[in-house]
Amino acid sequence: MNLLALEFPPVNHLFDWPSIWFEGTFYAINKTVLIYLGSMLVTMILFGLAGRQRESLVPVGVQHVAESGVNFIEESVVMQTIGPDGKKFMPFLTTMFFFILFSNITEVIPFIQFPANSRMAIPVTLALLVWVIYNFVGVRSQGLLGYLKNSLFPPGVPWPLYLIVTPIELVSTFLVRPFSLAIRLWANMVAGHLLLVTFAVLSAAMWGAGGIGFGGALFLSFPMLILMTGFEILVSVLQAFIFTILTAVYIGGSMHPEH
Amino acid sequence: MTATIRRLAGAFGLIGALTVLSAVPASAVGETPGTCIFEKVLEAENDYGSVHALEDPANKDALAAFEQELDTCEEAPSLIIPEIDEIIWGGGAFLILFGFMWWKGFPAVQGAMQARSEKIAADLDAAESAKTQATTVLADHEAQLAGAKAEAAQIVEDARAQADLVAAEIAARANEEMAQMRARAAADIESARSQAVSDLRGVVADIAVGAAERVIKSNLDIDTQRALVDAYIDEVAASNA
Question: Helix, strand or coil for residue A224?
Answer without folding.
Answer: helix
